[in-house]
């Protein structure tokens, strides 16, 4: 399905099918026009049809329906991480507040927390405003701890947040949290050896359906979507008068030209923007999720109604259970296992790591306890996806240094459902006004990838929003 010869670093043509993609969406192989618009100068070419590309296209066309925008997708629509994640939509990186504050300062740390919470709220509002059928469920999210050391660190973060809220009313968060310790934590999350847990409002969903519907809404506004059309090269052409510069985008189906190019390519960005690849700042990795049936004794356990991150159990594991009335009702969607194998610098999502799959299938029974779980339920399916990471955990959002007209929103660190939609809003604001919104974290700017003094912040090992 790759549309031609496969280039290293680009999406492979034969990925595994994810749980969400078992029934392909009606626009999976959509092509708005039979051929590419090779004879016109477009306003924008967007590369990538995941949550970032879909949101950018929708937001640009909502501001100016006259724009000519072509979206190129290497495979089928939403076939990357957005269509193969764990289904979480939650603002969980408040856990990193102390690290952000110590490294970047209080204002910047608070900007990130606001962006994350606003992002999740914006997605929830978007789903409801447009009546999107994507199995969107409101529920409580929980982060759970089984070691006293990890729990003490979390309580310190909570204490710091409380202190800053007392000084700064603008620091109030949207997601009220509840804290449980000891037996109360064990009862709340169903994990016998839990020493502490924190809960707050969140959501789960079918992310593939969300993004495909977002693409449809952009199509209604004039987007030209071309699936199975990988981009092999993006180059800038500047005529002698320097007034009519344009970008040339080469694909196996022809070459198109645009005033601007927007990369929404996440883990595949290095293959297209080689200047960024030379910095080593963006690192792709393969992650994995499984779906299993619940154990014979656990049905009805209220802990299964949570979207749970197991922060010091395994290595950032996470799970939720498909709600009653949905396809796959009762299926446990369980991801993580990265401590078994950190598959870095990989862009191939056509393979399953058998060791990780074995762990993910057995992990729920281990965490809930064999007596509480009962006989192991059968494995439904395993799938994998490619995400990417930056040293400081933040995405790259804005215009490429020295490359006028080359924009991007990439590097979501496996946390795209809590950063990508708001990052798209920031990028569109910058493109259309020439200024950055006041709420935009300066730590998201692209220039830092070339600065040579990169801030390194360890990624929160928690159940992230994308589940990859």
From TrEMBL:
Gene3D superfamilies: D-Amino Acid Oxidase, subunit A, domain 2, FAD/NAD(P)-binding domain. One of its GO terms (cellular component) is cytoplasm. Residues 43-428 form the FAD dependent oxidoreductase domain. It comes from the Eukaryota. This is FAD dependent oxidoreductase domain-containing protein. It comes from Neoarthrinium moseri.
């Amino acid at each position: 399905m790759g549309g031609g010869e496969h280039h290293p670093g680009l999406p492979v043509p034969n990925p595994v099918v994810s749980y969400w993609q078992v029934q392909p969406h009606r626009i999976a192989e959509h092509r708005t026009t039979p051929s590419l618009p090779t004879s016109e100068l477009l306003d924008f070419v967007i590369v990538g049809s995941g949550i970032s590309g879909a949101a950018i296209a929708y937001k640009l066309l909502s501001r100016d329906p006259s724009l000519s925008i072509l979206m190129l997708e290497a495979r089928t629509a939403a076939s990357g991480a957005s269509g193969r994640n764990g289904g979480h939509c939650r603002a969980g990186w408040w856990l990193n507040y102390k690290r952000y504050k110590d490294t970047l300062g209080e204002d910047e740390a608070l900007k990130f927390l606001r962006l994350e919470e606003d992002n999740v709220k914006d997605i929830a509002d978007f789903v409801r405003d447009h009546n999107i059928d994507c199995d969107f469920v409101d529920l409580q999210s929980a982060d759970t701890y089984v070691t006293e050391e990890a729990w003490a660190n979390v309580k310190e973060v909570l204490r710091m947040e409380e202190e800053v809220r007392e000084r700064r009313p603008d620091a109030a968060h949207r997601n009220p949290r509840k804290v449980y310790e000891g037996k109360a934590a064990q009862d709340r999350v169903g994990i016998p050896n839990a020493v502490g847990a924190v809960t707050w409002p969140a959501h789960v969903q079918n992310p593939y359906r969300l993004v495909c519907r977002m693409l449809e809404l952009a199509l209604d506004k004039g987007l030209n979507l071309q699936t199975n059309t990988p981009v092999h090269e993006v180059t800038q052409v500047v005529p002698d008068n320097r007034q009519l510069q344009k970008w040339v985008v080469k694909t196996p189906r022809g070459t198109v030209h645009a005033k601007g190019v927007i990369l929404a390519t996440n883990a595949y960005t290095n293959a297209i923007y080689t200047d960024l690849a030379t910095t080593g700042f963006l690192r792709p990795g393969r992650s994995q999720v499984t779906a299993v049936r619940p154990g014979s004794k656990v049905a009805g356990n209220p802990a299964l109604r949570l979207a749970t991150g197991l922060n010091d159990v395994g290595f950032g594991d996470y799970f939720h259970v498909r709600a009653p009335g949905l396809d796959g009702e009762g299926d446990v969607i369980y991801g993580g296992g990265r401590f078994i194998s950190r598959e870095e610098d990989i862009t191939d999502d056509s393979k399953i790591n058998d060791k990780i799959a074995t762990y993910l299938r057995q992990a729920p029974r281990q965490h809930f306890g064999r007596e509480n779980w009962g006989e192991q339920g059968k494995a439904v399916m395993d799938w994998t996806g490619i995400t990417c990471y930056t040293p400081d955990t933040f995405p790259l959002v804005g215009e490429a240094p020295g490359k006028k007209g080359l924009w991007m929103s990439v590097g979501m660190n496996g946390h795209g459902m809590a950063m990508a939609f708001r990052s798209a809003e920031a990028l569109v604001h910058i493109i259309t006004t020439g200024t950055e919104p006041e709420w935009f974290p300066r730590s998201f700017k692209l220039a830092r990838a070339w600065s040579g003094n990169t801030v390194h912040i360890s990624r929160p090992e928690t159940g992230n929003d994308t589940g990859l």
